């Protein structure tokens, strides 16, 4: 962070004016306040002194012999690259002061005869410098905050990268364990576990590859998840085709995980039970908005149908997991029997986008 003088420190004032008497009086008043004054009678000399540095505030007079203060103001560096400017004008016409402000001056003082003018000029110099100093401090603090946020996001992406890799390793070990078993029920149970792990790992994989670590694109995430499920379930439950139609909805990480696990459970159940042995078909996954405040996830098929009142088939773990996901999302589950097949939907409130 560059050095910024405290207002209690002596200010180094560059006074641009060709009136030697006025400059002497102004310098005397500023010295009483502990400030250091350097004089320049021309714009060229002022620019040379400014280039050497060690100038905190510029006091620029409007009326010089060879040029106006506006001419000099136009030749000074841009506002962010030079000290603040107090423009001094003896004109009663406010348009000169306004023109100076538009040209980059930070404050103006009307030149008058009497000691009060020099006190007013000194006060304006101190005020404009303090205002500029506080702005510099705020800008530095804002930059520090942005850097800290960027570091935090980088660390979060790295963490998600490591989590995704670890979960991928766990899924691979589960797959290896399943391949070493001969019990069909155990093999299926382990492969369902692998699908659940894959659903969670996919969220973390998309976070570290995304520009937004706070929100996740559900379309991109579900596209990859469906691809992973198609591969992992194919060998054990049939060559069914998963068809995805997902709206471009963004969700936070935790809710994205709940949606991913719900999709994994519903698709896995459809692979296992939707079609009669030896039959294949499609399993459709849909994510859409209902209005602006509600989302709907649906999984449907053209198979033998499903009666939610019938006794549970299998261990019932999938149904318990789905119920847990429903509670996490604060949504509702509905079973809709189509003309052919079955449809399970999960409606849930959508999160409001950050302002």
Note the topology.
Layout: E1 12-16, H1 20-32, E2 36-40, H2 43-52, E3 57-61, H3 69-75, E4 85-89, H4 94-102, E5 107-110, H5 115-179, H6 184-208, E6 215-217, H7 218-237, E7 241-246, E8 250-252, H8 253-273, E9 282-290, E10 294-301, H9 317-329, E11 332-336, E12 342-349
What does this structure look like?
The protein is of the alpha/beta class. The chain is 52% helix and 19% strand. The chain is built from nine helices and twelve strands. The chain has helices at 20-32, 43-52, 69-75, 94-102, 115-179, 184-208, 218-237, 253-273, 317-329, and strands at 12-16, 36-40, 57-61, 85-89, 107-110, 215-217, 241-246, 250-252, 282-290, 294-301, 332-336, 342-349. Strand 9 (282-290) and strand 10 form a beta hairpin. The longest helix is centred in the middle third of the chain and has 65 residues, at 115-179. It starts with 11 loop residues before the first strand and ends in a 6-residue tail after the last strand.
Name the features.
355 residues, single chain, alpha/beta, disordered N terminus, 19% strand, five-stranded parallel sheet
Shape: rod-shaped
Largest sheet: 5 strands, parallel
Note the gap between the termini: 31 Å
Q: What spatial order of strands do you see in the largest sheet?
A: 2-1-3-4-5
Unreliably modeled segments: 1-5
State which percent range the strand residues make up.
Answer: 15-25%
Order of helices and strands: EHEHEHEHEHHEHEEHEEHEE
Average pLDDT figure:
84
Count of DSSP helices?
9
């Amino acid at each position: 962070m560059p050095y910024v003088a405290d207002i209690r420190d002596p200010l180094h004032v560059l006074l641009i004016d060709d009136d030697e008497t006025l400059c002497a009086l102004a310098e005397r008043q500023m010295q009483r306040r502990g400030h250091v004054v350097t004089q320049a009678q021309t714009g060229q000399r002022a620019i040379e002194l400014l280039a050497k540095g060690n100038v905190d505030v510029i006091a620029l007079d409007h009326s010089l012999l060879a040029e106006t203060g506006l001419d000099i103001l136009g030749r000074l560096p841009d506002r962010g690259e030079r000290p603040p400017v107090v423009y001094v004008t003896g004109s009663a016409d406010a348009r000169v002061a306004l023109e100076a402000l538009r040209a980059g001056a930070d404050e103006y003082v009307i030149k008058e005869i009497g000691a009060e003018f020099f006190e007013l000029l000194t006060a304006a110099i101190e005020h404009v410098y303090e205002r500029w100093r506080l702005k510099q401090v705020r800008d530095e603090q804002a930059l520090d905050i942005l850097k800290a946020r960027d570091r935090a996001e980088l660390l979060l992406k790295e963490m998600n990268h490591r989590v995704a890799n670890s979960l991928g390793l766990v899924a691979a070990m589960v797959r290896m364990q399943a391949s070493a078993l001969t019990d069909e029920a155990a093999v299926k149970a382990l492969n369902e576990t692998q699908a659940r792990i894959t659903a969670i790992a996919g969220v973390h994989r998309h976070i570290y590859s995304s520009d937004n670590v706070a929100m996740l694109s559900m379309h991109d995430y579900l596209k990859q998840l469906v691809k992973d499920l198609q591969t992992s379930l194919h060998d054990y439950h049939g060559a069914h085709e998963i068809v995805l139609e997902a709206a471009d909805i963004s969700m936070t990480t935790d809710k994205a995980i709940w949606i991913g696990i719900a999709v994994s459970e519903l698709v896995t159940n459809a692979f296992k039970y939707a079609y009669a042995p030896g039959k294949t078909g499609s399993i459709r996954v849909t994510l859409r908005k209902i209005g602006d405040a509600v989302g709907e996830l649906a999984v449907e098929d053209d198979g033998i149908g499903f009666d939610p009142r019938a006794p549970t088939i299998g261990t019932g773990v999938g149904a318990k997991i789905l119920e847990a996901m429903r509670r996490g999302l604060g949504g509702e589950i509905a079973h809709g029997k189509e003309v052919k097949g079955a449809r399970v939907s999960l409606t849930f409130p959508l999160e409001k986008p950050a302002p």
